[in-house]
């Protein structure tokens, strides 16, 4: 080792160069004392915080802080005794290893964040607790390696010390490697947090994430320093520099670790995930350990239809730590209860529970009558909150009191639902666990009520943003602002999942009294609604998602109607509550039946029946409504579905409303206005006409009487809806809504050149600007009438808020910049001026702000402005497109009809007919033409090999539909014996030859290619002999059957041992023929592995079949006088046979696609995830395309019926702009092979080897 400078002298006058001196430099005592004090302070704070916030897992960071403190405490006497191993060694080891505790704490912290903030509590498929444990174990492993190396470093022997340094360095490198992996996990959590967490959770987690990133960075700095210090031997220049200068230890080791500890003091995890939240414990799941020998609770049938069950919660035993002033403090005790049957006629005293079932995968266990019963975790939390400490509580909760597996009981209990909630003493509404925002929101309710009453009593009708700050604080508190965080917290209550359940409408409407409960907070429902209404009246809701507020107002409307015994119409209720959700689509109807007058139910002939399929229920309601009402109002329900909803109901006619469509617009009459105002907006064009329902014979088509009036020439984009989840109300969010409205108004105005033609005459003689603003608000003038509404529009559009003049026609980014720079200040000034004159001379009339809000509400996400070829302005649904036609039908309140889309499909088997029927399901008016080259359509080609031996009785059993049945049932035109021989993508025309006649041309808007695959014709002499046939289509099948019957065939040779070959051999063997199977490869079914094939080979030979593998067919010889027909194979004896079947595989039919200039891949036509080819208006599906293989990770052909049918449906969805994607497949196949069933999924081992994909072979 190189000697340090001679001038360095250690304390106690021991020179640095002395062999007994353990220090390599002259250490600084004040620095050691300073850091000992600093680490002691942060250690004390961490101990206090861990105790205060009840976060036991913080022991890890406390250990790190204490080890750092102790190391510097020992360092001081070691400096004064530089030759003492008893002081130097403990200091050195503690100093080197203390950061590992801090590192371990970071691992534990992320685990708890995943547990708290991600719905599934998993990251990369690992449960939060398991992920944290894995990384802690890895940290312990690096700890052990480092401590082992550190002990060797303390040796006096230079060689041993060098070995120890290498081991310690390896431990450091391993620790840094684990940190790099861990950072990727943190990054993944960060991304998922942005997508899945609530705004409140994001805000909390962001602080911890920043702290975590900084802590890991500081630990990495320290590790890199140590790696540089010890990477080389003691003689290296770098090691000498770092080893002999104390300042580097303080700069890159002690200081980073101190700041890492301080960071965790400043943003302590306990402030955000305190107490039990910091534990990997789900109380609702671990509250009860069930004995495996215990039988689960068994329901007994109810005595009669008027009976129900009640849940008797056993009291929670009083504990010393219980707060005796509250009933809700029994969180750690398991829930036990008794279930008793009661008759509602006896007027039992109980409370009914209203709650959200929550995540069905999170289950908990309670004890009912001594037996365990599983319930949802959210229900468990509710029961835990409502049980008393000293006396039993009688509750009704549907998940427990109804046997969910007994359909008959579900039907009878749902019929009683109104009576159950009406008879309860109160309805307890469980919103979920408490948060900081929910506390603020619940606390704000009484203050909001008090302040709003003060404002109203003072005769002050100004909006919140129009009231000067001093007056506003007098009403709502010293710290109040219209965009105060408490306001956002109050509105965030309505974002709880409970407010979206459709069942809550009846539960709240019929209740005597209802209480909202969130954790330990509660508020009366009526007070909450009043507070919500007041907040709307004074304008607190300017930047809040209006749909959330509207849901509460609509619920209260039903509550008031029920209180005043007003009859309610089912269709009206369905439209009103269309945006509510239900797990079972049938509940969108059944949940509202309790609010409907009995005569209305008799009119519609509806009753609760869970054995009825959803689409049958929806169809039955539509037919009954059309027949009873004699109008088309029910057709106004929108059919736009989300991606998760679109495949739930098959073949639902377009005239049947799909009540699951929750995020869509109601008809124009019902969009955006209170029901009491709807009469003033009546649509009179068809008012006096009547409609008599007229259906096709099969009931699928509804015939309408009316006229097409106009064609849409231009459509403006709809106004984007406001954010659905927001707990903060801000000036920025309010102004941003103004910006969006301004942008949309500018674009809509451009449709009619409003800047230039504002004073030109509209068709009815009004000015264009008057026609524009009346269309904007759908003709609803508000409380002030026409003149007031007109004045408000001009105040908005031509004053300081002149949208037309101030909003430039520029790219969006420039527009946003100019808006921020210029329009926002103008908007603020206008609000101030409007506040100064807001009530002046306008009592009883709405303000300009209300005009803006109404326009925003009417247009948000549902409607856009359009122009027609005749010059009309119109509000049209968001899905309307240029070229659509507007129709007026007898006794309808809305008008809209699509211009029929012309769809041509080439190929009429599985995929093609699946696409055709799905397209008809999505659009009744579309023209759908299917061209099939062969004589049959809609048949099961997978069943063709089974048609020989009796599994399929006859050929007709394979034919599921005919051209006539497709026309009668689906109004689809099917053309058989019609081959499409050419495609002109530019002109959108296909050329067709029917029955060998002259070519005809057919136009299309969208084209679907579903031509399938064609047999591979092997290079075998004689494959065209009359006794040789391929087996692919029904005509092939008919040819083979006729030949066997005509020639009394006794033997057959099947060339090819794939699925079709094996299935055909099995079927022909059942027919009584002697069968030979000839396979070119080493075994049949090349998709399978050899161990499975050995079993199949044994079965084939056991059945008496002649099996040849590794056999190459050279030629097929015709029969002669001297010998029958023979199959000549290389290196083998000829095989005598009467008939030969060739099943040597298939290839995609791509000739037509190639002629059309479409992109062709290695195995088929290339398509994107939407199944579009390189020509956007041409789709391709089925055996002719190559799609992603989910294991091989590259496109390949998958010739299977299931994927082809699925692709047909997806292609049809995308034609109608549903944006459904095809993700790929794994290729699952199965076939009958004599007494065996052979199946495969994915790739075989040899295929995986060819693709160089790592795999395991388990037998």
From TrEMBL:
<feature type="transmembrane region" description="Helical">
    <location>
        <begin position="208"/>
        <end position="227"/>
    </location>
</feature>
<dbReference type="GO" id="GO:0016491">
    <property type="term" value="F:oxidoreductase activity"/>
</dbReference>
<feature type="transmembrane region" description="Helical">
    <location>
        <begin position="813"/>
        <end position="833"/>
    </location>
</feature>
<feature type="domain" description="Heterokaryon incompatibility">
    <location>
        <begin position="350"/>
        <end position="507"/>
    </location>
</feature>
<keyword id="KW-0812">Transmembrane</keyword>
<dbReference type="InterPro" id="IPR052895">
    <property type="entry name" value="HetReg/Transcr_Mod"/>
</dbReference>
<dbReference type="InterPro" id="IPR010730">
    <property type="entry name" value="HET"/>
</dbReference>
<feature type="transmembrane region" description="Helical">
    <location>
        <begin position="165"/>
        <end position="187"/>
    </location>
</feature>
<feature type="transmembrane region" description="Helical">
    <location>
        <begin position="131"/>
        <end position="153"/>
    </location>
</feature>
<dbReference type="Pfam" id="PF07992">
    <property type="entry name" value="Pyr_redox_2"/>
</dbReference>
<dbReference type="Pfam" id="PF04479">
    <property type="entry name" value="RTA1"/>
</dbReference>
<dbReference type="GO" id="GO:0016020">
    <property type="term" value="C:membrane"/>
</dbReference>
<keyword id="KW-0472">Membrane</keyword>
<dbReference type="InterPro" id="IPR036188">
    <property type="entry name" value="FAD/NAD-bd_sf"/>
</dbReference>
<dbReference type="InterPro" id="IPR023753">
    <property type="entry name" value="FAD/NAD-binding_dom"/>
</dbReference>
<keyword id="KW-1133">Transmembrane helix</keyword>
<protein>
    <recommendedName>
        <fullName>Heterokaryon incompatibility domain-containing protein</fullName>
    </recommendedName>
</protein>
<feature type="transmembrane region" description="Helical">
    <location>
        <begin position="29"/>
        <end position="48"/>
    </location>
</feature>
<feature type="domain" description="FAD/NAD(P)-binding">
    <location>
        <begin position="902"/>
        <end position="1193"/>
    </location>
</feature>
<feature type="transmembrane region" description="Helical">
    <location>
        <begin position="88"/>
        <end position="110"/>
    </location>
</feature>
<feature type="transmembrane region" description="Helical">
    <location>
        <begin position="57"/>
        <end position="76"/>
    </location>
</feature>
<dbReference type="Pfam" id="PF06985">
    <property type="entry name" value="HET"/>
</dbReference>
<dbReference type="InterPro" id="IPR007568">
    <property type="entry name" value="RTA1"/>
</dbReference>
